Amino acid sequence: MAKRNVEKEILEALDVFVSKDKQIPITNDRKVNVSGLCKELGLKPSDVQHFHKKDSVKLAVNAIAGEQDILPIGARAISVAEDKAMRERIATVTSRSKDIGQAAAEQSAAIGAMSETVRYLKEQLVILADENTRLRRDNSALKERLKILRNGGVEPPFI
C-alpha cells in the first residue's frame, strides 16, 4: 500500500476549492478556521496539523486568505503591543485586587476588635450604672440618718 502524500492531497483539494470560488471559513476574529477548511475540503480532522506544519500548504491557504481579506493561519488577533498592554493592565488589576483584599481583611479585623471593645465597654457601663444607683441610694439613706442625728436622735415631724 502506497504512503499517502498528504501535502499533495491538500493542495489539490485547495485548487478545486479555489476553482469553485468558495469562501474560506473564518473564526469570530476573522482568522482562517483551519478545522472548518479541512471539513470543506473533505479531509480528515487529523489533517488540520498539516495546515500548520507544512509551509507549502500554509502559504497556499494564506495567499487565498489574503485575497479574501481574512487573517492568515497563525495570525494573532491582537498585536504584540496591545497584548503587552493588556497583560500589564491585568497585572495592575490583580495587584490592586490583592491590595484591596488585604485592606478589607485588615479592616474586618479592626472592626472585630472594635466590636469586642464596644461590648466590653457596654458591660462596664451597666456595672457602673448599677454602682451609681446603689451609691445614690446609700447617699440618700445617709442624708436621712444625718437629719435624724441633727434632730437629737428624733425623727423630724412629718409636715
Question: What is this structure's SSE topology?
Answer:
Elements: H1 6-19, H2 34-41, H3 48-53, H4 55-67, H5 80-150
Task: Explain what this protein looks like in three dimensions.
- With 159 residues, this protein is mainly α.
- The protein has a domain at 6-67.
- The protein has five helices and no strands.
- It has helices at 6-19, 34-41, 48-53, 55-67, 80-150.
- Helix 1 (6-19) packs parallel to helix 4 (55-67).
- Keywords: Coiled coil.
- Residues 125-152 form a coiled coil.
Key terms for this structure?
159 residues; coiled coil; mainly alpha
Q: What's the gist of this structure?
A:
Keywords: Coiled coil. With 159 residues, this protein is mainly α. The chain is built from 5 helices and no strands.
